[in-house]
Amino acid sequence: MHYACPLGMMDVAIGQEGYKLKSLGDTGAELNIIPEIESIKAKLTMRALNMCLKGIGCHSTAVVGLAENTLLVLPLGEERKIHFFVARGAVHTVIGRPFLADNGIELENSQDQGEILSYKESDGKRLCIPICSPEAKGWH
After folding, report:
1. Could you tell me which Pfam families the record lists for this protein (predicted)?
2. Confidence of residue 34 (pLDDT cuts 50, 70, 90)
3. I need a labelling partner for 102 at 20 to 30 A (CA). Which of 29, 49, 121, 124 fits?
């Protein structure tokens, strides 16, 4: 499996205890990924797996588990459920296509606002999070 089309980093909280970490939003990632050490710190329950991911640079990363139906709190407090594949080694926490698609999260481009990650909140309103502004160079 391959992954990489990063959108930007966001602060999230996971698990029942609200463990805080930075996650990479990635529209190209086929899986949601969390490093094993972060899953331990967050006290996530996982089911053992034994598989490998092949990265964009053709490197291989061991997947040692699956943390299912994990509570995920997005930057402005919206709560969702996510399945994380638990990876051993130096990887970023990645929120990929499965989560983005399941939750109606879209990447939008605006001439005035730049690139925006947007999703519908439980009250029906659409929340927009700027990722790359036309005024500032680089990712937020």
Report:
1. RVP (PF00077)
2. very high
3. 49
Rounded to the nearest integer, the mean pLDDT of the chain is 85
Residue of 64, 60, 66, 61 whose CA lies nearest to 85: 66
Residue whose structure tokens are 């463990």: 19
Return the pLDDT at 5.
Answer: 56
> Per residue in 41-78, is it b (16+ CB within 10 Å) or e — as a string?
ebebebeeeeeebeeeeeeebebbbbbeebbbbbeeee
User: Residue 71 corresponds to which tokens in the numbers above?
Assistant: 């509570």
Architecture of domain 6-103: Beta Barrel (2.40)
CA angle 30, 33, 38 (to 5 degrees): 175
- Let me know: does 91 contact 59? Beta carbons within 8 Å: no
